[in-house]
Amino acid sequence: MSGCGKISNGVTINDGFFNRFRETLIREGIPYQWEALNDRLPADTEPSYCIRNFRIAAGKEEGSHGGFVFQDSDVYKWLEGVAFSLRWHPDPALEATADEAISIIAEAQQPDGYLDTYYIINGLEKRWTNLKDHHELYCAGHMIEAAVAYYMVTGKRRLLDVALRFVDHIDSVIGPEEGKLHGYPGHPVIEMALMRLYEVTKDPRHLHLAEYFVNERGQSPLFFEEEDRRTGNNFYWKNSPFRYQYYQAGKPVRAQKDAEGHSVRAMYLFSGMADVARETGDESLITACRNLWESTTKRRMYITGAVGSTEYGEAFSFDYDLPNDTIYGETCASIGLCFFARRMLMLEARGEYADVMERALYNGILSGMQLDGKRFFYVNPLEVVPEACEKDPHKRHVKPERQKWFGCACCPPNLIRMLASLEDYIATETADTLYIHLYIGGEIKSGDAVLTLTGNYPWDGKIQLEFRTERPICKTIALRIPGWCHSCTIMVNDMAATEKPRDGYVYIPRIWGDGDRIDLCLDMPVRMMRANPRIRKDAGLVTLCRGPIVYCLEEADNGGDLHLLHGLSLAHARVQWEPETLGGVMTLITEAERESRLGWDNLYDDCPAPASTPVQLRWIPYYAWANRSVGEMRVWIRQ
Amino acid sequence: MSGCGKISNGVTINDGFFNRFRETLIREGIPYQWEALNDRLPADTEPSYCIRNFRIAAGKEEGSHGGFVFQDSDVYKWLEGVAFSLRWHPDPALEATADEAISIIAEAQQPDGYLDTYYIINGLEKRWTNLKDHHELYCAGHMIEAAVAYYMVTGKRRLLDVALRFVDHIDSVIGPEEGKLHGYPGHPVIEMALMRLYEVTKDPRHLHLAEYFVNERGQSPLFFEEEDRRTGNNFYWKNSPFRYQYYQAGKPVRAQKDAEGHSVRAMYLFSGMADVARETGDESLITACRNLWESTTKRRMYITGAVGSTEYGEAFSFDYDLPNDTIYGETCASIGLCFFARRMLMLEARGEYADVMERALYNGILSGMQLDGKRFFYVNPLEVVPEACEKDPHKRHVKPERQKWFGCACCPPNLIRMLASLEDYIATETADTLYIHLYIGGEIKSGDAVLTLTGNYPWDGKIQLEFRTERPICKTIALRIPGWCHSCTIMVNDMAATEKPRDGYVYIPRIWGDGDRIDLCLDMPVRMMRANPRIRKDAGLVTLCRGPIVYCLEEADNGGDLHLLHGLSLAHARVQWEPETLGGVMTLITEAERESRLGWDNLYDDCPAPASTPVQLRWIPYYAWANRSVGEMRVWIRQ
């Protein structure tokens, strides 16, 4: 099986659904986060310290380092997001701000290329003594990703040069050679960053360093164990069930069969592994990626594309353990799942990868941001009772409303870079085939031809693709048929196509001329969903999906005590476009029953089943929950 | 409304159900725990240090203090249990061992009466500087309880004198007078202990000190806050939702409307409050007791009589928050609930108090001990999946099998003293009425008359009471009609009694002669139980009870994946006496359905409801779970 080729770099988006989110990003998200990074948000907001740390490191300001050891990464992620946004929304003022940020970053770089404000401020003699927990390589990774993106979009090399010097420094300190540290990052990301850098530089040292980080990880004797012994660093996860697997470093990556430990780290590592595997063709690494994909998406993923079942270690737990109310489901982890899915897709043309990418994108990722772009979820639960968030200490990580900022602010800029780079998730191209993975409206260039995609996805399954080309082109168009779609029709210039889907794609080979048109109609009924019976916490429960959208019930529409709802019926289900609700959403109206609470005095009784009365339920898309008032929310209800 | 009088002190037990547990106590439990207290259990067991600490404090051995600050209480609780056991099972060798323990304890007492090995060993200058967390008053309370029990049973004063001297010392250090600490214990128990002491001594100082501890608690300015300020002690619960209510000290006891904080402390405090209220007749305190009873038993109690919904703080959480799998449900808390219930009963003759006492006793207390008397549960869950206990860090407090001993070994000796003193829970007597609360077989003396109770409770609802008396006695016999019983008949000398139950008791006034007989027949069908719809985690679930016994399903009988069971029917339910199973239990055989796991590859699907096949379920009494093999267990299943 072959991959889906390279990311099409001639994609522009013009999409009824995503335009709104992306305009919010430009109008609110990016400027708001720049204010946050500069500590200019109101005083009741968690401070960032991020830019201030760089100014201190550059000798432009006095003070001590603020925030976490990985604080630098926030501005890198913001810069990467800005770079992507400039690709589709040129903005000289924003670019000037970004250049200003880059300038401060560059001034903080040390003569030997080193750049991490935590150690520059607190003492360089301590650098590289805690690869396990001190995130220098993590920050370097995000710097590289920002540098590559900024260079690719603006052509400006300043940050790229900073990154290249830092990579040279890293390469001189870490690696297989004697006298170097035989280490790797406690928090992966540099693996995929180096692979992106390699795409630009084609410098084999960049590929080899990425490979080294992937292959050395978890080898015996364990670097982290030796590092702790040498430096006296603390091993926080000593008594945890996952121990070094918290870092996905408990065993070599090819021996890892399950997605374990910190879920964001896992997703970033697996993405880097897939990048290296694609470049090197290493079959054992491809197999490892497939195993970890299976574990993640077939046994340890929520219906929303959330991953990470437990707050303890922000981690995966065990197969089919998917509690809805104590979930971690970090926004960054779903973003990471999207990274991983796209990379698996580039390894193998299988629709299941794009299905998961779409699931995470339209549900567990979008839910991370308030519709106004100014508040964020770290944790994305599938069941919330506000009283429990307040009073049950084991649910205090679950918030019933989005927060303005976080001490650990990984998610907000991750949302920026994800949404600003959506172009890169829509289509890929091999020599002879153009793959369409996501039905986001806009234009896709292929050679000299332009394919225009229009429709009203995800609210409607009818999608039109039209060619504009000066001369006919010979190309197979591979259209993804989503896993959720049980019936579809494809018309090519009003003639029914006869091709059948293969591994999730319908391949239409043809010489396409100007004005040629494909009409894809994905049947998009309301679907009553059930969970795999191995998922204990979903036993006997159902929920609704339509197209890629997972729905939920909110107290605002359905009253409290959502656990009393049952007997969901699709008999008279209605799909209702509500332009004024939550920025415009398709709501679902269904019938169900609500159990009565009346007549109960005791806690337990052998009375008959409680009476129920018919109720009409109003379902909203999961991603839009918690945008009106604080209240209960549930994805799953009793059948 | 008046109370049920005093505990009948002429009760002897001869009961098919409890004899076995109590013989195990004599044969195994008491000697085993003595070995534990002396650190003579196998090396893989948690050490106790308890007796060793006393020997060091008495100058008979060198060394440092081992274990927790409250380690002393373990031997006091053991001694109390031994005292109760000697009442019904005289054992000179055991009494000699107890005397030996008492001798070591007495030798450790300081000239001024102080006695707590932690401070004697670590430095007396620090004593009374951490009433909040250092348990000196808690240990004193258990010493008093042991001393009173040992004195009452054996007539020996040595431990009583030690206790009296210690109380004199406490009275000289703590109290309302200027120059004394205006404090109270972080862990209650001394309140009810002093009330028991007062029963023996009638020394008003003992009553007043108990009253003081109850009334001063939570008053402003808060003693614990001032103590922390003065001494620099740590306040562990500063950022918890309950703060000082962890200690039930966040407000004065009369202002406390909810059972909050550490559940064992709550139960012990409420018991002490009820003791003081009964003695003083203080209406505001009686009202406070009633409020806390309502909160505990009408909104925060499990069907097994377990209390304490969360491991965090071993605490109550909030109304109707009763998760079955992350529960704390400490054995000691159910024992404390039994204490509280009995004291409420002595305040007011209402069957609901005895109902809760019975519920806790036959379920959540007995479950704490293995049938062989040598292993113990601290936490008593209603739903267990062994894999989750191992791999979900938020369930690591839940064990799928009982443990040999604990670093904090409060539960095992608490079980001894509870079961060894069962006589005191069966009957109470006022001037004219003899109340029968629990149908445990044996004899109850009332004046010169003896009432013999026989039957096969809890397996059978037929109970016979027969008088032996030389001369007729005029007495109202008040028979409790359990809340679970919807239909019963009472025959007095084969004539149907016409009295109707009033607040849970049928009162039969009569002049009783020798050979007079009451036949009580409590209808005892299998009951399908539902939980109050406000309990979110039990929505849509059912379980079975019969008489006072709560049933559960184990993997050993029903296979794993118990969450797939549903469709419980009582249509062909069978009740089956199995003498060879679990020491002899009545099992229940019912029909239900088991959902198939077949055909699932994905995690989520819009497939039809999964197929189910009929299965026969075998239910065992909850108290007997985890006595065969490690496996799944569930009390509640889908309806």
Break the fold down into its secondary structure elements and pairings:
The structure is a homodimer of 639-residue chains.
Chain A: E1 6-7, E2 11-13, H1 18-37, H2 50-57, H3 72-88, H4 92-108, H5 117-122, H6 136-154, H7 158-173, H8 190-201, H9 204-216, H10 223-231, H11 263-280, H12 283-299, H13 331-347, H14 351-365, E3 383-384, H15 386-391, H16 411-420, E4 427-429, E5 433-436, E6 442-446, E7 449-455, E8 462-468, E9 473-480, E10 488-492, E11 495-496, E12 505-512, E13 517-522, E14 526-531, E15 541-546, E16 549-554, H17 555-558, E17 565-578, E18 585-595, E19 604-605, E20 612-621, E21 633-634, E22 637-638
Parallel strand pairs in A: 5-9
Antiparallel strand pairs in A: 1-4, 2-6, 3-21, 4-5, 6-7, 7-8, 8-13, 9-12, 10-11, 10-13, 14-15, 15-16, 15-22, 16-20, 16-21, 17-18, 18-20
Q: What does this 3D model show about the protein?
A:
The structure is a homodimer of 639-residue chains. Chain A has 639 residues and is α+β, with helices and mostly antiparallel strands. The first copy, chain A, has three domains: 10-427, Glycosyltransferase; 430-522, Immunoglobulin-like (Sandwich); 526-638, no CATH class. The first copy, chain A, contains 17 helices and 22 strands. Chain A has helices at 18-37, 50-57, 72-88, 92-108, 117-122, 136-154, 158-173, 190-201, 204-216, 223-231, 263-280, 283-299, 331-347, 351-365, 386-391, 411-420, 555-558; strands at residues 6-7, 11-13, 383-384, 427-429, 433-436, 442-446, 449-455, 462-468, 473-480, 488-492, 495-496, 505-512, 517-522, 526-531, 541-546, 549-554, 565-578, 585-595, 604-605, 612-621, 633-634, 637-638. In chain A, the strands form three sheets. In chain A, strands 3, 14, 15, 16, 17, 18, 20, 21 and 22 form a nine-stranded antiparallel sheet that branches. In chain A, α3 (72-88) packs parallel to α6, α8 packs antiparallel against α9 and α13 runs antiparallel to α14 (351-365). Chain A is globular. The mean pLDDT of chain A is 96. Chains A and B meet through α12, α15, β14 and β19 of A and α12, α15, β14 and β19 of B.
